[in-house]
Amino acid sequence: MRATFHSLAVQNDSAPLLCPGGNAAHVLTGRVSALLAEKYDVTLLTSFGTEAQDLNTAIKAHEGIEVSHTWPEQPSPLKGKPAAVVSDPSLCIPDADIILFLLPAFAHESYLQAFKPHLGKKDVLLGTMPCQGGFDICVHSVLPDLMDKVSLFGLETLPWACRISKPGQVVEVLGTKKEVDMCVEPTSRSEEIRDVCQELIGPTPSLHLTGSFLGLTLMNINSVWHPTITFGRFRGWDGVTPFEEPPLFYEGVDDFTADMLCNISTEIQEVKHKINEEYPDIDLSAVVHVTDWIKRAYQGQISDTTSLGSCIRTNSAYKGLTHAMKKVEGGYVPNFDYRYTSEDIPMGLVVTRGIAQLCDVPTPHLDKVLNWFEEHVPKSFLVEGKLTGTDIATTRCPQRYGYTDLRQFLVASRLVSAE
Length: 419
Prior knowledge:
Blueprint: E1 2-4, E2 8-10, E3 17-19, H1 23-35, E4 41-45, H2 51-62, E5 65-68, E6 78-80, E7 84-86, E8 98-101, H3 108-115, E9 124-128, H4 135-142, E10 150-155, E11 160-166, E12 170-176, E13 179-185, H5 190-201, E14 206-209, H6 213-218, H7 221-234, H8 255-278, H9 290-297, H10 308-313, E15 325-328, E16 331-334, H11 339-342, H12 345-359, H13 364-376, E17 382-383, E18 386-387, H14 406-412
Parallel strand pairs: 1-4, 3-8, 4-7, 5-12, 8-9, 9-10, 13-14
Antiparallel strand pairs: 2-8, 5-6, 10-13, 11-12, 15-16, 17-18
């Protein structure tokens, strides 16, 4: 099977294709190439600058990607080498059996456009992890005539908390989730594709099938976690004075920030309930409160489960992780170009806000975070409480695709019959 990771591309003789560069692509490439080489041929595809060349050079120098981990009954570190690292989709997409996006969601559309001329030769699994908001809508908008050859899947979040130590050479798994929700389209292939994904990532986390991409969109933990924690830490910053050291990200969550996280999650629950009141057959079981999510995802890794704040601060998988900062004269300042802003807002928070708007559900706490980021990025999404700003075209919210009515959106999402 041929797989591509950055795509991750997998072929069955076998080829996964990974569209990569990031932490998770390093982990998955090292793991699959080390343990499943007889079944999966891994190709890394990246069109970003000289990344393919740089990765190729680093991997060859180290004779593979080394993965340090604490997975039971598996040697640590693992070390595996992909079959190829390329920048040209024509070299791997036509023969790929699995294409897995492990890159920021804002790049999905450009990659899909580049893949389009090379798809259609054979059936392919096309997926992403994490599954940022609107992934399915984006794919259908770019590949409308190829969907009979494409099956979609998405993991709600990454299986691991991980960090690259040396690009193309060494990556460390800091923590592994116990359970992760995933979705498949068409649902008739759910168990088959779930089993393939489970084999690729390993026995943990356990992949739990859920019924809709809409559920994964609303339960996009990154879109709640990252922007809100960033807002909570820097809400009083004067925009000028540097910090001596990068502040701790999760361990630095204060009670105000934990309350904001709870309130935003509650607003998302209201959106879920509003949809299910009118459309009870839509499976939104994946959409749970963030307090329940972290306890489930990190079972056994949290030493104090008293409150959401204590769960975050005492999660061993989050230990030592810091805010994204830029080095400046005198110290460090927030890096608002990092993916916590560039990805988790337009492909996460704004998507959720757009669905809430279709449901007529007020989201004052979510709006407070979004308005703060609009001032610091700067971007324009909300105008007088509606998603009509000039930067909507850079997002995956329903309004970007012309959906202004809940039923219209649900029909396009293949969750409600058009009749």
